[in-house]
Amino acid sequence: MSATDVEMMGLTSAEVAERAADGRSNAFTQQSSRSVSSIIRANVLTLFNGIIAACFLVLLLLGRWQDALFGISAIANTVIGSVQEFRAKAALDKLALLHAPRARVRRDGVVTEVAVGGVVLDDRLVLRAGDQVPADARVATSARLQLDESMLTGESDAVDKAPGDDVLSGSVVIAGEGEAIVVRAGADSFANRLASEAKKFSLVASELRTSIDKVLRVVAWIVGPIALLVFNAQMFVFGGWEQAIESGDWRQAAVNTIAALVAMIPLGLVLMTSIAFAVGAVKLARQQVLVQELAAVEGLARVDLICLDKTGTLTEGSIVFDAEHPLGAAADDAAGGCAGWRSVLAWYGGEPDANATARCLAEAYDDVPSAAPVARIPFSSARKWSAVAFATGAASAAGAEVAGSWVLGGPEMVFPDNRLADDARGLAASGLRTLVLARSAEPLDEVSEALPAGLEPVALVTFRERIRPDAAETLAYFAEQGVAVRIISGDNPATVAAIARSVGLDAADGFDARQLPEEPAELAAVLAQHLVFGRVTPDQKKAIVIALKQAGHTVAMTGDGVNDALAIKEADIGIAMESGSAATKAVARIVLLDGRFSHLPRVVAEGRQVIANIERVSMLFLTKTVWATGLALLFGVFVLAFPFLPRQLSVVDGLTIGIPAFFLALMPNARRYVPGFLRRSLSFAIPAGIVVALAVFFYSWAATQAGIGEDELRTGSTLLLTIIGLWVLIVLSRPIDGWKILIIGSMMVGLILVYSVPLATEFLVFVDPSIVTAVLVLAVSVVSIGAIEVIRAVHRRYVRRTALFDPSTTP
Predict the structure, then answer these.
(1) Which of 313, 360, 467, 692 is the most exposed place for a label (fewest CB within 10 A)?
(2) Is 745 exposed, middle or buried (0-12, 13-18, 19+ CB in 10 A)?
């Protein structure tokens, strides 16, 4: 038996067992994107959770559960953060490119079906129409074998495979049959390598989250030393360490220290940001937009460049008949004997194995020839034409003559002499797919599959991709908002450029990605000069996104095929269509459930609302962090009793920050995003926080000098802090209108109730203030309010100088 005969037999059972035993099989276990334990550790075992937990535990051990209300925010932050990451993990864990449960192989000369994981290296795959290729292989035999590789490469046309050609795992056989030898399997196969790279876990870049983390890191560095400073001061307030320990006053010193520390940590800001993201995601879900990671709501509002795949984004992924353009003898059906050419097109449209392009002809032509063809050559993507021949005297149902050989294909392939170049070039430049129908009186040679002699062009037939009706309007919106656009597609550059022009982009020509440089800086330079790129591979799409990010852009990427998955994964914001592949949707941050591109402006608007409102809210929380840190330092350095209980600060926090911030974070706000969120917030929070800290410190010092008792001093301090805090809220909420009036009014009513309802005053240890306390609180409040008004005026001028947006929308 010859070597060829042995190869045709496929592997033996022993050879299969040997390869399976040493790991050369297609068995592949997808690694989880991130373990459950690592997610829990990242969200639970944090420094701030440790600080909060320690403070919470100390208060419980001291029997002061009333002062431990701050623990609720810490628990909520942990739960929300964990849920976000679990959702992202669940989406990635579902990612798989190979879906066929069984594969067909030839072993010991017999064709048998095995599990996809049971395929081994050097196995002989038997491929038939409808099969998904389970592993990378090289074609051994081909009987008009055609594969659809669009899911992997972006090329929309079917690809003919001849012996010696490679086939990729994940591609689908759409016509013909053949056999192929496995050359890469398991983790080395194209589909599994693509899936493994796409499954790498990452959270969307969020300026809000990053800025808040910076604040938390700074507080983390100073909280320890400040805790020791404050606790030491409180111990000396109670007569020194020895006396405080003997008398038991160390307990109150510990409570005072915890009050100072907890106020420094902006836990509410983290919680409020998560809530704003979540509410935005819910609102978008009602618009058929699925937000798979909450911070993506903010992310798209920051995008300044969006990359679009043509198919499935600008177009619907299907083509339709456009028009017929008669040539030569076909200009007059009565001349030249070609009266039946429309019937021939009808035959092509109704052919059972017609490709997607030919099927479009059935909508335009229905006069199918009554006689069956005597010869035919199927379409091949390699030669890009098909042919059919009818016997002498054959006619359509309407009596039109269709005898002779007919060829339908690409003009440059049917007429290599380029006699139709000028006609075809003009049509192709407008984004139309062009085929020529030609006729010959010579017979058709099915064996050689060669073009018949004496071909004459009869008509050019054009097809167009179905443009999404909302594409032009959406791109116009992005242009108005200063968001740049790049079209990156696997299709022909000229076709892509023409479609881009049809939706309003100023794209003169498409750039052939086969000429793209690999060096990132050079690639970025090319990307800055061109808008449209064709023949782009999946790896190039990813490289393009990386180069744009390195050039300083915040990049969004939209697409629907697996060939887009790596780029979507790499982009700051990945957007997938619901009609896209499961892998693409798994790695995307946002999925358009009804595939409507026009939803993106709504997503941008929602993101802007979140950013603008959180910026306003952050000034409230960061002001608190600054004054809390200032108070801790002042009372620690000057060894004064800290003038608050934790529960009193919790109430102030709720009335002046927490409750109103919740509503302010959800209000309409269309201000355009401008970088520098943290800088702008701190430019108000730091001076305002210093004013508040000095005001409370001065009042406390003056009240101590006046001999005011401990409970009344705390009552006055809380009242002073509440009044100033409410004014900060009023300043940051301007203009005060609509719901803001109700919100601020409700907080003022709450203030009155807290100081007047016996149950509340007893719980908060409030007492009726004396005349001295009332005068002091009033005087310090007036001075502080005046100082805050000056700070806000200066802050608005600073923002106008450093930001490029309308002053009327300043937060």
Answers:
(1) 467
(2) exposed
Extract the tokens encoding 763: 């719980």
Give the CATH fold of the 320-464 domain: Calcium-transporting ATPase, cytoplasmic domain N (3.40.1110)
**Helices within 94-179 (DSSP H only):** 150-153
Rounded to the nearest 10°, the torsion over CA 126, 130, 135, 137 is 50
- Answer yes or no: 309 catalytic: yes
Q: What does residue 596 show for φ and ψ, rounded to 5 degrees?
A: -90, 115
Q: How far apart are CA 773 and CA 709, in angstroms?
A: 10
Q: At 65, is the pLDDT very low, low, confident or very high (cuts 50, 70, 90)?
A: low
Six-digit token string for 438: 């030609």
DSSP category for residue 368:
-
List 112's β-bridge partners, or say none: 105
Q: The domain 3-28+97-198 is classified under which CATH number: 3.90.1150.10, 3.30.70.260, 2.70.150.10, 2.40.40.20?
A: 2.70.150.10
CA–CA distance, 282 with 16 (Å, rounded to integer): 52
Which one from 123, 136, 304, 309 is the annotated catalytic residue? Answer: 309
Distance CA(690)–CA(730), nearest Å, equals 18
Given the candidates 3.10.150.10, 3.30.70.660, 1.10.540.10, 1.20.1110.10, the CATH classification of the domain at 609-809 is 1.20.1110.10
Q: Quote the CA–CA distance of 560 and 477 in Å, as a whole number.
A: 22
Q: Give the Cα separation of 803 and 38 in Å (integer).
A: 40
Give the model's pLDDT for residue 387.
92
547 neighbors 537 (Cβ within 8 angstroms)? no
Going by pLDDT thresholds of 50, 70 and 90, the confidence category of residue 283 is confident
What is the structure's pLDDT at 28?
67
What is d(CA 703, CA 772) in angstroms, rounded to the nearest whole number? 8
**Which residue reads 């301007």 in tokens?**
734
pLDDT at 670 (0 to 100): 63
Helix (H), strand (E) at residue 290: strand 289-291
Q: In sequence order, what E strands does 583-709 have?
A: 590-592
Torsions phi, psi for 451 (to 5 deg): -65, 140
Please list, in sequence order, all residues whose beta carbon lies within 8 angstroms of the beta carbon of residue 734, skipping any fewer than 6 positions away.
Answer: none
The CATH code that applies to domain 289-314+469-595 is 3.40.50.1000
**Are 720 and 699 within 8 A, CB to CB?**
yes
